[in-house]
Write a structure and sequence with these properties.
The structure holds two protein chains of two kinds. Chain A is mostly helical. Helices cover about 80% and strands about 0% of the residues of chain A. Chain A has helices at about 1-20, 25-50, 50-75, 80-85, 95-115, 125-140, 145-165, 175-200. The termini of chain A are far apart. Chain B is mainly α. Chain B has one domain (about 1-495). Chain B is about 75% helix and about 0% strand. Chain B has 20 helices and two strands. In chain B, strands 1-2 form a two-stranded antiparallel sheet. In chain B, a hairpin with a 4-residue loop joins β1 and β2 (about 65). The longest helix of chain B has about 30 residues, at about 330-360. Chain B is globular. Classes of the chains: A mainly alpha, B mainly alpha. At the A-B interface, α6, α7 and α8 of A face α5, α6, α9 and α10 of B.
């Protein structure tokens, strides 16, 4: 039980990088690390429970989300990663940090209120998972840069898969495969639009895209 | 098993059409693929629906695929819209008035994504496994977002980005809902079970009510974003106004209904276990529905662009459909199901009209389009009758479905919702018909090209509109027997 909890805690810690980082490249690396840790949780769970789908899911996560997706993101956004370092918030930095802490707290409180059938992982991991989901969604709404917005969504998705490991570790591998495949396609489409954005407005700062009103 | 084969063929045809559109080198062949593909898919869909009507729900491949009356209604909607949008696309891109000069490869992108978009929506309507349903609804976003960006300038890109980010965020919230729904069955079915509609349906009242209810709420918020429910609708007016006209028809007419299908499906699975709390689930749906109607109507009044006007009308109409299901009275539910069909037909017609007006006047600004009736009479007939149809005037189909919803709502002990809906529909009626009648009949000094005889548009871009007009008019007088049984059957699935 302990290794899983430690790995999960590391996922939460790593997710805060999305809140504090000033480098676009960090978003991609953070996501890769987060995915490796998630795969690690699943593999550690396999060691405890001997459910073979957990091992396969762990390996699938590492292969697709730890290796392939970061690769695609780096290639698609190489222009932006090389060019710009500073990224801007819609809200001020200390405020963002405070909101992040608040969302983490909310995640843990909500986790204690959900009467779920306890499976392999303790409640604290559900709290972590919900916090990661909320932090990811917050990153997407609070960051102006398209690459960080994508990073936020992907981080949120990792949080959700962790929720899945807590609530439904027996979910069939086919289903998890479908979800991971979905992420891969999402990244391809988003990468395509990020590249289009760079071509259209020479930046990935979405505050350049505010012509549609009303 | 013949049903399994038919279901697989239903998915295979659009997939092959998509692959074909990627593979072939000539646009001529790409055009030629569209009609046979939609015709075969439509025929397969109708065959399957007929088999559902005669033999009950179809279960295939270990419940990964499933077609019951509720799925069948939305499948019918998707195929209607997709087939006609396919036919319209051909005429639209070939039209001599087409202002956008097609670059090489653009049609390859367009038609391959078009078929994929159809495929993902068909898959959503035949999914039996709930995770597959989530995946299919999510995949509709990925197929359609690049289509929103088809014209490849700044505004469509902005619209596509907003759509993608908000839709994906919503889909993640919905996934959390589906995970909770899965957890709600663990106590009864064990930690590894077949997460499918028939299995959870059979479990009925024995699911964990708190988890199932919470799951529904999250699916409502998450997929409500995709279904265009306020206050999560903010992407919709942009995406549905920037895409090419046939894509707009698919987005408004078909895709929104797929998201709504997923919401209603989870509602139907979560309600039996909820007991006296079921009223809360319905109230949430009704609340989102009414709010969407209010937002839709308020923004209808202030629009200057007719495509945005139609997009806000979709917010209003999806709100009405949600409210109909939320009211839960049998008559209102049947009305909401019929509304899914009639709204899709009329909205596709109006988006085809918007494409025709754009072809003829090169603008989507309402004030610049005047006196269509003198310039292009056939186009004008479609515009004004379509506007009356979408606004819900008798004798069109939307009048029947809207009347059923309002009638069902007024029959409830809490008749207030019915009164609000009726009032909003009335304001919406004026806000929709007035601008289109000014565009059709107005004198004005619009900057549009001067009226010249013989400048009517080609029959290709008008015919799909006339087909839709005929269908929506027919539904106003007569709901065919099989469709009637289908709607009743679907309403029983919703109100288990």
């Amino acid at each position: 039980m302990l290794p899983e909890v430690i790995l999960a805690a590391l996922i939460l810690l790593v997710t805060f990088t999305f809140i504090v980082t000033r480098q676009l490249g960090a978003a991609v690396s953070t996501y890769a690390v987060q995915s490796w840790l998630l795969g690690g949780v699943s593999i550690a769970l396999f060691a405890d429970s001997h459910l073979i789908q957990l091992l396969l899911f762990g390996l699938l996560t590492i292969a697709v989300k730890g290796i392939a997706v970061p690769q695609i993101l780096r290639r698609r956004s190489s222009f932006a990663l090389a060019g710009r370092r500073e990224t801007v918030y819609f809200v001020r930095f200390p405020t963002a940090l405070l909101i992040g802490a608040g969302l983490t707290l909310i995640g843990f409180i909500v986790a204690t209120r959900i009467p779920y059938p306890h499976q392999l992982l303790p409640e604290s991991v559900l709290g972590i998972a919900l916090a990661v989901l909320l932090l990811g969604l917050f990153t997407t709404t609070a960051r102006r840069d398209a690459i960080l917005q994508v990073g936020g969504l992907l981080a949120a998705e990792n949080g959700l898969l962790l929720v899945g490991l807590v609530l439904a570790p027996g979910l069939s591998l086919l289903i998890e495969f479908a979800i991971v495949l979905d992420v891969l396609i999402a990244v391809l489409v988003m990468g395509f639009l990020v590249a289009r954005m760079h071509q259209e407005v020479s930046t990935t700062d979405t505050s350049e895209l505010t012509r549609l009103r009303g | 098993m013949i049903n399994t084969t038919l279901l697989l063929l239903l998915l295979a045809v659009p997939l092959l059409a998509a692959l074909g559109s990627v593979a072939v080198s000539q646009d001529r062949i790409r055009y030629a693929l569209v009609l046979p593909s939609s015709f075969i898919t439509f025929a397969l869909a109708l065959t399957l629906i007929a088999r559902v009507l005669s033999g009950g729900p179809i279960r295939a491949l270990g419940d990964w695929l499933y077609l019951d009356d509720l799925n069948a209604v939305v499948l019918l909607v998707v195929m209607f819209v997709s087939s006609l949008a396919g036919a319209y696309s051909i005429a639209y891109f070939r039209s001599p008035q087409q202002g956008h000069v097609l670059r090489s490869g653009e049609l390859r992108k367009y038609f391959s994504l078009f078929h994929l978009f159809t495929l993902t929506m068909v898959l959503a309507t035949v999914s039996g496994n709930l995770a597959l349903l989530w995946t299919a609804v999510t995949a509709t976003t990925f197929a359609s977002a690049p289509l929103v960006d088809f014209y490849g300038s700044r505004e469509p890109l902005e619209a596509a980005w907003k759509f993608l980010v908000l839709a994906v965020a919503g889909e993640l919230i919905a996934l959390l809902g589906f995970l909770l729904l899965y957890a709600s069955g663990i106590a009864l079915l064990g930690s590894t079970y077949n997460f499918s509609v028939p299995v959870l349906g059979a479990a009925g009242a024995h699911l964990s009510p708190t988890l199932a209810g919470l799951g529904f709420m999250l699916v409502l918020v998450g997929f409500g974003t995709k279904a265009g429910l306020a206050p999560m609708h903010t992407w919709l007016p942009d995406a549905h106004s920037q895409a090419p006209a046939p894509v707009c028809a698919m987005l408004s007419g078909a895709e929104l209904n797929c998201a709504m299908l997923a919401i209603i499906r989870v509602l139907s699975l979560a309600t039996p276990s909820a007991g006296h709390r079921a009223i809360d689930l319905h109230a949430a749906l009704l609340g989102f529905g009414l709010l969407s109607m209010i937002v839709g109507v308020v923004f209808l009044v202030s629009q200057r662009n007719f495509k945005r006007l139609l997009a806000y009308s979709s917010v209003e109409q999806m709100g009405l459909i949600a409210a109909g299901f939320g009211i839960g009275a049998p008559l209102a539910v049947v009305g909401a199901l019929l509304q899914m069909l009639t709204h899709s037909l009329a909205k596709s017609l109006m988006f085809f009209n918007s494409g025709n007006l754009l072809l003829r006047f090169r603008t989507t600004t309402m004030a610049e389009v005047r006196g269509v009736i003198r310039v292009a009479p056939a186009t004008a007939v479609l515009v004004i009758l379509g506007a009356l149809a979408i606004a819900g005037a008798p004798p069109f189909g939307l009048f029947v479905s809207e009347f059923s919803i309002v009638r069902g709502a007024l029959g409830q002990p809490n008749w207030g919702a019915g009164a609000i809906i009726a009032a909003l529909l009335l304001v919406g009626f004026i806000a929709l018909v007035a601008p289109f009648s000014r565009m059709t009949f107005g004198e004005g000094d619009g900057t549009a090209p001067s009226a010249s005889p013989g400048s009517e548009l080609g029959v290709g871009v008008l015919a799909p509109g006339f087909a839709l007009l005929a269908a929506v008019l027919l539904l106003g007088f007569w709901v065919p027997g099989p469709l009637h049984s289908l709607l009743i059957g679907a309403s029983r699935v919703v109100n288990r």
